[in-house]
Design a protein that fits this description.
By secondary structure, the protein is mainly alpha-helical. The protein has 32 helices and 5 strands. The longest helix has 19 residues.
């Protein structure tokens, strides 16, 4: 063999790519070394992404280089999206030497898949794994195909087989985690992602998959922390930037989300998730025409996330027939990944509901809820129980709760509407959904003794660092604060409680039709859980209405939307506020509500949600109808 070829291969192995390329090119003029040198040079150029140069080197030896040359040309054509040519180059590859056949079949399967021939792709890979059962890459690729087709159990088995042949491979382990999540084994998925991240904390696939799973479980802050760490290592990666932007939006930081999506699109103007994310953010903030302008005219080639965002925007503009067509088209091409199918199901349900196609809407919402990975623990739906609040606590300060108003009620019972109305009053500071009381309750969960005066004062300041200015009202509309009202009575004396009530059948229906991300609201995805949660909530609310130390006012959703002047007037009087006509013009506020009711509170008061449950009466279970 030409000594220069040996030297070139040695330089290539040692990472001296410049020297290797020079020596390979010198060998191209050697009668004995020209073909192997061309093959190795093409491989080096392909590794560097110089595909046109690699092809120029390979074309002259296509006939004389045999299967290796055709395989390398097929790689180049595949990278450049020339899938028909890939299949032409690989014709007859079944007769090639065995080490080349496996890769040829991998490339052929990928080409079939890209050409929209899933059955041919599946058949090619099946033959490949049967012919080469000890090939870990083939098993991994087989698992990827099964995962894409929604065959979670088969995908798990394929990835496990690949790992048995190549233990600890981080990419395959991350694939296995995703398949386990699809199969409903959330604990197993978290464990597998953890195995990868323990050894490779910046593994892109593992971090992004783990973060998406955390988001599905409602653990948004943890997900953001993980992705921020990855972004520090990959600051120009649009996938990571867009993922963090989506998490920022889920966490309520709309400004950071918009900056992130915009940054990702500046790097890649066609980035699917950034485009869809920014459009959905515009839908969230009421900028419906702007969102549609961002997405452009669209068509049957829309990717799933973009199509869903487009349909949601069209629905907000009352173009529901168009939205239904968009979703029907994308339903046939979107993959089997639970997260995207869940979003699609709820989007379809919303559109079909507005079109009056109730049975179809009910089926779509049910399909979406079936894909919710979270599980509700009824034991968590109990009031704060610990020594700190069961015994008389030291006062937190005479004015610690002065001006604080807790707006509580089951989700979808009108809490957002009430706060938005109050937010239009010049004497009201709207705080939105605050998690502080829940966090304080967790801090005290295992406490052995009553609070001291200093501790009570400290916790009151944790809840709100600055006192509410004199004459002002500060609202906190975390619905599940009803679980922590005993704690609020101890820490925030003089705080007021506004309890929102709504027909429980409408409340249950609206919860079931909402894709909640918070795991504390997991009861919304099953009717039996909803019935139990509503019963528990009603019992708690009734108890606190009679409890000493809490000044409570009840608001009826039905009364608020049918006679807002009277119901709102009584609420303002309870809060010590004068009537303000702007409270009835709440929908004109620039304020964004970071809840599932963000779109509804941009409309003036309407009554169409009263007795909405009657549209779905034929399909509602008895324990909901009898609430």
């Amino acid at each position: 063999m030409d000594l220069r070829l040996k030297a070139a291969r040695r330089a290539h192995r040692q990472g001296d790519r410049e020297s290797a390329e020079t020596l390979y090119r010198e060998c191209l003029n050697s009668a004995d070394a020209a073909v192997p040198a061309a093959l190795l040079l093409a491989q080096l150029l392909g590794e560097d992404g110089r595909l046109d140069e690699a092809e120029a080197v390979l074309r002259p030896i296509q006939a004389t280089g045999g299967p290796p040359a055709r395989l390398l040309l097929a790689r180049v054509a595949s990278e450049q999206g020339r899938y028909g040519e890939v299949l032409d180059l690989l014709s007859g590859s079944a007769a090639w030497p065995p080490p080349l056949v496996a890769e040829a079949r991998l490339l052929a399967a990928g080409a079939h898949e890209s050409l929209g021939r899933p059955e041919e792709a599946r058949a090619t890979l099946r033959v490949a794994v049967e012919a080469s059962p000890d090939h870990p890459v083939l098993w991994n690729r087989w698992g990827v195909l099964l995962h894409a087709e929604g065959e979670a159990a088969g995908a798990v088995g394929a990835f496990e087989r690949s790992l048995a042949l190549r233990p600890g491979h981080p990419g395959v382990t991350a694939n296995l985690a995703a398949a386990l999540a699809m199969a409903g084994d959330i604990e197993g998925a978290m464990t597998r992602y953890g195995e990868v991240l323990e050894r490779h904390p910046e593994h892109r696939q593992a971090v992004t998959g783990y973060a998406r799973l955390l988001q599905e479980l409602g653990r948004v802050d943890e997900a953001r922390t993980r992705v921020r760490g990855l972004l520090a290592a990959r600051p120009d990666d649009p996938d990571v930037i867009a993922l963090l932007a989506g998490l920022d939006q889920a966490g309520g930081d709309v400004a950071a989300a918009e900056r992130g999506f915009t940054s990702a699109l500046a790097i890649n103007p066609g980035h699917t998730n950034a485009l869809a994310g920014l459009a959905e953010l515009m839908e969230w903030t009421g900028r419906y025409p702007e969102g549609l302008d961002l997405l452009g005219p669209g068509g049957p080639d829309d990717e799933g996330p973009v199509a869903i965002a487009r349909a949601r925007l069209l629905g907000r503009l009352h173009r529901n027939d168009e939205a239904a067509v968009v979703l029907e088209n994308v339903d046939r091409k979107v993959g089997a990944e639970p997260a995207i199918r869940r979003r699609l199901a709820f989007a379809k349900g919303d559109v079909l509901d507005r079109l009056g196609r109730y049975e179809e809407a009910f089926a779509s919402y049910s399909a979406g809820n079936a894909l919710n990975p979270t599980r509700w623990n009824p034991a968590a739906f109990e009031p704060t129980k610990n020594v700190a609040v069961e015994r008389p606590a030291a006062p937190a300060g005479a004015g610690a709760g002065e001006g604080v108003t807790l707006i509580v009620g089951m989700p979808r019972s009108g809490t957002t509407l009430v706060e938005q109305m109050l937010a239009a009053h010049p004497r009201v500071i709207a705080g939105g959904e605050r998690a502080e009381l829940g966090r304080i309750a967790m801090e005290l969960e295992n406490r052995a003794g009553p609070l001291t005066a200093d501790e009570a004062g400290r916790l009151a300041r944790v809840y709100r660092r600055e006192p509410v200015p004199g004459g002002k009202v500060f609202t906190d509309k975390m619905p599940l604060n009803v679980l922590h009202l005993p704690l609020a009575a101890r820490l925030l004396p003089r705080a007021r409680v506004v309890l929102c009530r709504r027909d429980p059948r409408d409340t249950a229906l609206s919860c079931y039709f909402t894709d909640f991300m918070d795991p504390a609201l997991a009861f919304a995805c099953r009717w039996d859980w909803l019935a139990e949660a509503l019963a528990r909530y009603r019992a708690l609310a009734d108890r606190w209405l009679e409890a000493p130390g809490l000044e409570t006012h009840t608001v009826s959703y039905e009364a608020m939307v049918t006679d807002p002047r009277s119901e709102l007037g009584a609420l303002l009087e309870f809060l010590g506020l004068q009537w303000h006509p702007g409270c009835l013009q709440f929908h004109l506020l620039a304020r964004t509500a970071h809840t599932a009711s963000h779109a509804q509170v941009r409309q003036s008061v309407y009554t169409s949600s009263i007795d909405r449950w009657r549209n779905y009466e034929p399909w509602l279970p008895a324990d909901i109808l009898t609430l």
